[in-house]
Amino acid sequence: MENQIWLITAATGGFGESLAKYALSRGDKVVATSRTMKKLNEKFGGESENFLPFELKFEGDLQAKFKALIEATQKKFGRIDNLVNNAGYGLLGIVEETGEADLRTQFEINVFAPFLLTQAALKLMRPQAIKDGGSEEKVVARIFNLSSIGGFRTSGASTPYCMSKFAVSALSEGLNLELNQFGIRAINVMPTGFRTEFLGESLKTGAGAIKDYNEFRSATIEKFKAYNGKQPGNPATFGPVMFEISRQTMPAQYLFMGSSAFKNAEQKMALVMADMKDTRSIAGEAMDFKDATESAFDKRNK
Does the domain spanning 5-260 belong to CATH 3.40.50.720? Predict the structure, then answer.
C-alpha cells in the first residue's frame, strides 16, 4: 500500500493530533499546522523526513498564508493526497444575545478559512488528480472537512456555531458536485460527543445577556459543564478511522462519528420526513407549473 501525504490543520490537540500521529505511525507523511511552532515541536519533535511542521495563525492575510503553506507542502512532499480542514472553535450562545463581531469571527475561522485553504490546495490537488487518472469511478484524493453533527442539526444555545458548520457541510456537498469528475472526494465529517477541547479551550460564548433567557442560559451552561469530560467518544479512535477511509476506493461523502451523532442524525431525518409527509399534499406538486422541466439543481452526488 502506497504511503500518502496529509495536510492537517490544528494538529496539536484532539482530532488533529490523533490523526497526525496515527498517520505517521503507519508510514504516511504529514504536514501539520498549529498556532505556534513550539506546540508542534513539543508534540512531534520537529521536522523530519516524513513530517513538516508549519506555524499558522488564522488571522491577517489568510490567502497569502495558505499559498505559502501549499508551496511549502509541495516543496517538501510534492503532492497532497488528503487535506484535512480541522481547525475551528465553537461559539455557543443564544441568537438574541450573540454580537455581530463574535459571529463574524466565528465564520472567519470556521467557514472562510477552510474555504480559502481548499481553494489554495486545489491548485495542487486538481492537476495532480487529473495526472493520476482520477474520475467519478476512481477516487485519487480526498478533502476531509470537519463539520459537526451541529452541521446537520442544531441544538439549544449553539445556533452561531451550528450556522458555521451547516456552511461547512454545504461546502463539502458543493465540492463533490464540482470535483467528482477529477476523482477528488470531499468527505463531510460530523462528529459529536468526543472528549476533545471543544467544551474547554475551544469553546467561546456570547457576551450579551438578556434576563428573560437567564434560566435557559444557566441550565444550558450547567449541562455543558456536566457533559465535558464525560462524552462517550474517544478522540484516539479518530486517526485509525480517518486512515481507513483514506484507503477506501469510494469513501462515503457523509461521515457521522460517534454513537450520539448517528442517533441525532436519525432523529433529525425522522422529523424532516414526518414534516414532508404532512405538507407534501399542499406544498409539493400542487405548487408546480404543469409545463415545468426537470430542475437544473436536482443532480445529486453518487
Answer: yes
What does the block give as the cell for 211?
434576563
How far is 83 from 131, CA to CA, in rounded Å? 18
Bin 88: left if φ > 0, else alpha if -120 < ψ < 50, else beta: left
Q: What share of the chain is helix, strand, coil (3-state, %, to 5)?
A: 50, 15, 30
Phi first, then psi: give them for residue 86, nearest 5 degrees: -105, -25
Which residue ranges make up each domain of the chain? 5-260
Give the chain's count of helices (H) and strands (E). 9, 9
What is the model's pTM? 0.93
End-to-end Cα, the chain, rounded Å: 26
pLDDT tens figures, 16-74? 999 999 999 999 999 999 999 999 999 999 999 999 999 999 999 999 999 999 999 99
Q: In 143-184, which ranges are continuous DSSP H helix?
A: 159-179
Burial of 64 by CB count in 10 Å (0-12 exposed, 13-18 middle, 19+ buried)? exposed
In the predicted model, residues of the chain with pLDDT beneath 70 are 1, 197-207, 229, 296-302
Cα within 13 Å of Cα(16), Cβ side: 27
